[in-house]
Amino acid sequence: MNKKKLFSIVLIASILITLFSLKGDSNYLQEKEADNIWSQLLPTLNEIIRKGDYLVYNNEIEINESPAESHKWKTFIERFSYHVGIINLKNTPKMRKTFTLQTQFRDFKNKTSIEFTISDDTTNEVIERRIFISKRIIWTCTVPVILALLLSFYTGRPLLGLSVSALIGSALINSNSVFIGLWQLIVHYIPEGLFGRNGMNFKLILFITLMHFIVSALSFTGGEGKTKKTLTR
Q: Which helix (H) or strand (E) covers residue 70, if one does?
């Protein structure tokens, strides 16, 4: 493939990916942004929450916020609730203290400010208050896809391009750290990508793989031509 054709393909793909990211993939980007903020809070939680403790997430939106503002933070609240559930599952059974986690959201200059307040449920004493500011993930989400296209076309090895771009993408959403990105990729992103919820992704991958083997077997035995003749009758 010549360089002009390669450049045209990558340019068109980049434009489409960017438009898709800005318009149709906002929910996914918010999930990654929420996970990034949570990864910054997690060391603080690990210092406070011990084995046997229980964490309650108070996800009530402030009264003075409009329904539109409440909907804006819905994805963040869902992701934080998910991570709190993982912490409680890891620390079961409930035997010791109960803590409450509250969040306060602010939006300014394309950045998200989230204030986390951790308090003792028994005494209502505030133990820790942390504020994190996260810039919205927009253009960075296009880098792994473009990199995968470039490497796949240039090297002729799609798996190599996908592997490198997946690592780069994981590093970009994990404080630009290659080591943390690699760990998150192996422990979280690949298992979640393979199995998804209720194993639907794994079932889809298995179905496509079986179909590929069936088509390959038909081609090898010469049954492909007979199948085409049967379908065209």
A: helix 67-72
Q: How far apart are CA 110 and CA 92, in angstroms?
A: 38
Residue 124: the pLDDT is: 86
Q: What is the pLDDT of residues 30-68, one digit of tens each?
A: 787 888 889 889 889 989 988 889 999 987 655 445 555
How far is residue 146's CA from residue 119's CA, in Å, rounded to a whole number?
A: 44
Nearest to 97 by CA among 48, 159, 32, 53: 53
Asked if residues 49 and 5 have their Cβ atoms less than 8 Å apart, the reply is no
Task: Using DSSP, state whether 120 is helix, strand or coil.
Answer: strand
Contact 145, 161 (CB under 8 A): no
In this prediction, residue 179 carries a pLDDT of 82
- Per the CB < 8 A criterion, the answer to whether 112 and 134 are in contact is yes
Query: Are 100 and 119 within 8 A, CB to CB?
Result: yes
Tokens standing for 138? Answer: 């927009």
